[in-house]
Amino acid sequence: MLDLVLPLQCGGCGAPSTRWCGDCAAALAVRADEPHLAAPRLDPGVPVFSLGRYAGPRRRAVVAVKEHGRADLIPVLADALRAGLTRLLTWGLLDTPLTVVPAPTRAWSARRRGGDPVTRMARAACADLPGVTVAAALRTRALAADSVGLSTADRQRNIAGRVKAVRAVAGEVLVVDDIVTTGATAAESVRVLQTGGTRVAAVLVVANA
After folding, report:
1. In whole angstroms, what is the distance from residue 74 CA to residue 62 CA?
2. Mean pLDDT, contiguous 10-residue spans, the chain (209 residues)
3. GO MF terms on file (predicted)?
4. Where do the domains of the chain lie, and which CATH numbers do they carry?
Protein backbone atom coordinates (compact mmCIF):
# COMPACT_ATOMS: atom_id res chain seq x y z
CA MET A 1 0.00 0.00 0.00
CA LEU A 2 2.83 2.40 0.87
CA ASP A 3 4.44 1.77 -2.53
CA LEU A 4 1.15 2.74 -4.18
CA VAL A 5 0.97 6.05 -2.29
CA LEU A 6 4.71 6.87 -2.29
CA PRO A 7 6.37 4.70 -4.92
CA LEU A 8 9.88 3.70 -3.86
CA GLN A 9 12.49 4.09 -6.56
CA CYS A 10 16.20 3.41 -6.71
CA GLY A 11 18.07 6.66 -6.16
CA GLY A 12 20.60 5.75 -8.81
CA CYS A 13 18.55 4.48 -11.75
CA GLY A 14 14.87 4.76 -10.85
CA ALA A 15 14.24 1.01 -10.62
CA PRO A 16 10.99 0.39 -8.71
CA SER A 17 10.52 -0.97 -5.19
CA THR A 18 14.06 -0.42 -3.93
CA ARG A 19 15.95 2.58 -2.60
CA TRP A 20 19.28 1.37 -4.07
CA CYS A 21 19.54 -1.52 -6.50
CA GLY A 22 22.35 -4.02 -6.91
CA ASP A 23 23.64 -2.50 -10.13
CA CYS A 24 23.93 0.97 -8.59
CA ALA A 25 25.55 -0.51 -5.48
CA ALA A 26 28.17 -2.09 -7.71
CA ALA A 27 28.73 1.23 -9.50
CA LEU A 28 29.32 3.01 -6.18
CA ALA A 29 31.55 0.33 -4.67
CA VAL A 30 35.04 1.51 -3.74
CA ARG A 31 37.54 -0.54 -5.70
CA ALA A 32 41.00 -1.68 -4.66
CA ASP A 33 42.78 1.31 -6.21
CA GLU A 34 40.30 3.95 -5.00
CA PRO A 35 39.99 6.70 -3.94
CA HIS A 36 41.87 8.50 -6.71
CA LEU A 37 43.61 11.85 -6.63
CA ALA A 38 41.49 14.60 -8.18
CA ALA A 39 42.75 17.89 -9.61
CA PRO A 40 40.19 20.67 -9.06
CA ARG A 41 40.85 23.94 -10.88
CA LEU A 42 41.48 25.68 -7.56
CA ASP A 43 44.22 23.84 -5.68
CA PRO A 44 43.50 23.76 -1.91
CA GLY A 45 47.16 23.00 -1.19
CA VAL A 46 46.48 19.50 0.13
CA PRO A 47 45.66 16.26 -1.73
CA VAL A 48 42.05 15.92 -2.89
CA PHE A 49 40.84 12.30 -3.04
CA SER A 50 37.66 11.34 -4.88
CA LEU A 51 35.68 8.10 -4.90
CA GLY A 52 34.63 8.60 -8.53
CA ARG A 53 33.38 10.88 -11.27
CA TYR A 54 30.23 12.92 -10.78
CA ALA A 55 28.22 10.87 -13.25
CA GLY A 56 25.74 8.00 -13.47
CA PRO A 57 24.28 6.55 -10.26
CA ARG A 58 26.80 8.46 -8.13
CA ARG A 59 25.63 11.81 -9.48
CA ARG A 60 21.95 10.90 -9.27
CA ALA A 61 22.32 9.80 -5.65
CA VAL A 62 24.04 13.05 -4.63
CA VAL A 63 21.37 15.10 -6.41
CA ALA A 64 18.58 13.02 -4.86
CA VAL A 65 19.93 13.70 -1.36
CA LYS A 66 20.60 17.40 -1.87
CA GLU A 67 17.71 18.44 -4.08
CA HIS A 68 14.95 15.87 -3.60
CA GLY A 69 15.11 15.09 0.11
CA ARG A 70 16.19 11.45 -0.27
CA ALA A 71 17.62 11.17 3.24
CA ASP A 72 17.31 7.40 2.88
CA LEU A 73 20.31 7.55 0.53
CA ILE A 74 22.63 9.18 3.08
CA PRO A 75 23.65 5.75 4.48
CA VAL A 76 24.47 4.63 0.92
CA LEU A 77 26.84 7.56 0.35
CA ALA A 78 28.16 7.24 3.91
CA ASP A 79 29.13 3.61 3.31
CA ALA A 80 31.16 4.64 0.26
CA LEU A 81 32.78 7.48 2.19
CA ARG A 82 33.64 5.13 5.04
CA ALA A 83 35.26 2.68 2.62
CA GLY A 84 37.34 5.47 1.08
CA LEU A 85 38.40 6.79 4.47
CA THR A 86 39.34 3.30 5.65
CA ARG A 87 41.39 2.83 2.49
CA LEU A 88 43.35 6.06 3.10
CA LEU A 89 44.05 4.97 6.68
CA THR A 90 45.15 1.52 5.50
CA TRP A 91 47.48 3.04 2.92
CA GLY A 92 49.06 5.19 5.63
CA LEU A 93 48.05 8.45 3.92
CA LEU A 94 46.09 9.39 7.04
CA ASP A 95 46.76 8.55 10.65
CA THR A 96 44.79 8.44 13.87
CA PRO A 97 43.76 10.25 15.91
CA LEU A 98 41.94 11.92 13.03
CA THR A 99 39.23 14.56 13.03
CA VAL A 100 36.85 14.64 10.07
CA VAL A 101 35.50 18.11 9.33
CA PRO A 102 32.50 18.35 6.97
CA ALA A 103 32.67 21.12 4.38
CA PRO A 104 30.25 23.93 5.32
CA THR A 105 26.68 24.10 4.01
CA ARG A 106 24.68 27.33 3.86
CA ALA A 107 22.21 27.46 6.77
CA TRP A 108 19.18 28.03 4.55
CA SER A 109 20.18 25.12 2.32
CA ALA A 110 20.52 22.86 5.35
CA ARG A 111 17.07 23.90 6.59
CA ARG A 112 15.56 23.28 3.15
CA ARG A 113 17.14 19.81 3.07
CA GLY A 114 16.00 18.87 6.57
CA GLY A 115 19.54 19.12 7.98
CA ASP A 116 23.08 19.25 6.68
CA PRO A 117 23.50 16.12 4.52
CA VAL A 118 27.31 16.32 4.43
CA THR A 119 27.56 16.36 8.23
CA ARG A 120 25.04 13.54 8.54
CA MET A 121 26.95 11.54 5.95
CA ALA A 122 30.26 12.16 7.75
CA ARG A 123 28.87 11.10 11.13
CA ALA A 124 27.42 7.90 9.67
CA ALA A 125 30.66 7.14 7.82
CA CYS A 126 32.83 7.58 10.89
CA ALA A 127 30.62 5.85 13.44
CA ASP A 128 32.68 3.39 15.49
CA LEU A 129 35.88 3.95 13.49
CA PRO A 130 38.69 3.74 16.08
CA GLY A 131 40.51 7.03 16.58
CA VAL A 132 38.24 8.96 14.18
CA THR A 133 35.90 11.72 15.32
CA VAL A 134 33.70 14.24 13.48
CA ALA A 135 33.71 17.96 14.26
CA ALA A 136 31.31 20.36 12.54
CA ALA A 137 33.91 23.10 12.82
CA LEU A 138 33.03 25.21 9.77
CA ARG A 139 30.07 27.43 8.92
CA THR A 140 29.18 29.56 5.93
CA ARG A 141 28.59 33.24 6.65
CA ALA A 142 25.51 35.01 5.36
CA LEU A 143 25.37 36.29 1.77
CA ALA A 144 27.08 33.27 0.20
CA ALA A 145 24.94 32.42 -2.82
CA ASP A 146 24.16 29.01 -4.26
CA SER A 147 27.15 28.06 -6.41
CA VAL A 148 25.21 26.10 -9.04
CA GLY A 149 25.88 27.57 -12.47
CA LEU A 150 28.70 29.88 -11.34
CA SER A 151 32.04 30.00 -13.14
CA THR A 152 35.27 29.10 -11.37
CA ALA A 153 36.10 32.77 -10.74
CA ASP A 154 32.56 33.51 -9.56
CA ARG A 155 32.58 30.51 -7.21
CA GLN A 156 35.86 31.71 -5.73
CA ARG A 157 34.52 35.24 -5.20
CA ASN A 158 31.26 33.86 -3.81
CA ILE A 159 32.94 31.78 -1.11
CA ALA A 160 36.01 33.94 -0.35
CA GLY A 161 35.85 35.18 3.22
CA ARG A 162 32.48 33.54 3.84
CA VAL A 163 33.64 30.35 5.55
CA LYS A 164 34.35 30.70 9.25
CA ALA A 165 35.65 28.37 11.93
CA VAL A 166 33.25 27.94 14.84
CA ARG A 167 35.54 25.76 16.94
CA ALA A 168 39.20 24.91 17.18
CA VAL A 169 40.35 21.50 15.98
CA ALA A 170 43.59 19.91 17.16
CA GLY A 171 45.60 17.18 15.49
CA GLU A 172 45.27 15.85 11.95
CA VAL A 173 42.15 16.83 9.99
CA LEU A 174 40.41 15.45 6.92
CA VAL A 175 37.88 17.72 5.18
CA VAL A 176 35.00 15.79 3.57
CA ASP A 177 32.34 16.84 1.07
CA ASP A 178 29.88 15.24 -1.30
CA ILE A 179 31.30 16.77 -4.48
CA VAL A 180 34.21 18.92 -5.60
CA THR A 181 33.72 20.96 -8.77
CA THR A 182 36.04 23.96 -9.06
CA GLY A 183 37.56 23.35 -5.61
CA ALA A 184 36.53 26.78 -4.29
CA THR A 185 34.79 25.49 -1.16
CA ALA A 186 37.54 22.97 -0.43
CA ALA A 187 40.25 25.61 -0.84
CA GLU A 188 38.49 28.12 1.41
CA SER A 189 37.75 25.45 4.03
CA VAL A 190 41.39 24.36 4.12
CA ARG A 191 42.59 27.97 4.25
CA VAL A 192 40.33 28.85 7.20
CA LEU A 193 41.35 25.75 9.15
CA GLN A 194 45.04 26.30 8.48
CA THR A 195 44.77 29.96 9.47
CA GLY A 196 43.51 28.77 12.84
CA GLY A 197 46.53 26.50 13.25
CA THR A 198 44.86 23.24 12.21
CA ARG A 199 46.89 20.68 10.28
CA VAL A 200 44.78 19.61 7.29
CA ALA A 201 46.03 16.37 5.74
CA ALA A 202 43.65 16.01 2.79
CA VAL A 203 40.18 16.43 1.33
CA LEU A 204 37.95 13.42 0.57
CA VAL A 205 34.82 13.67 -1.60
CA VAL A 206 32.22 11.23 -2.87
CA ALA A 207 32.51 12.62 -6.40
CA ASN A 208 34.50 15.03 -8.53
CA ALA A 209 33.10 16.92 -11.51
Report:
1. 9
2. 65 95 97 96 97 97 93 97 98 98 76 78 97 96 55 59 90 97 95 96 98
3. glycosyltransferase activity
4. 30-208 (3.40.50)
